[in-house]
Amino acid sequence: MSFSVVKAADVPASDAEHPASSPYDRRLSTPLGITRFGLYEVDLPAGATTVPHDHRQDDAEDAYVVVRGSGWLVVDGVETALAAGHAAGVTPEPERWFRAGPDGCTLLAVCA
Asked: Is 108 exposed, middle or buried (0-12, 13-18, 19+ CB in 10 A)?
């Protein structure tokens, strides 16, 4: 098949995909049949965080798009506020993680 469609909410959240996975990650790339990059929906409740990580070992870059709520992207200890509609990219080297704001935050993460 040349395309596939999934409802993100039907994909179970899991922290079992890789060491940087949080229990709020829905790995969408697998049920979509995508193998060249990781695509995740991360639905963080208020104050929740993702796992601090870098990509020095696999040389991957991360891109994030906030689709609901707000929070802080923390890159090498520097916090940057992001809200719905903001996008950010991070090169492989720095440590990065995300913390949700008081109303929670949903973001799409691409790892390639």
From this structure: middle
Could you tell me if 73 and 64 are in contact, meaning their C-beta atoms sit under 8 angstroms apart? yes
| pLDDT tens-digit map of 22-64 | 899 999 999 999 999 999 999 999 999 999 999 999 999 999 9
Rounded to whole angstroms, how far apart are CA atoms 83 and 5?
27
Sign of dihedral through CA atoms 109, 50, 18, 88?
A: positive
**Exposure b/e, 22-49, CB count within 10 A at least 16 = b:** bebbbbbbeeeeeeeebbbbbbbeeebe
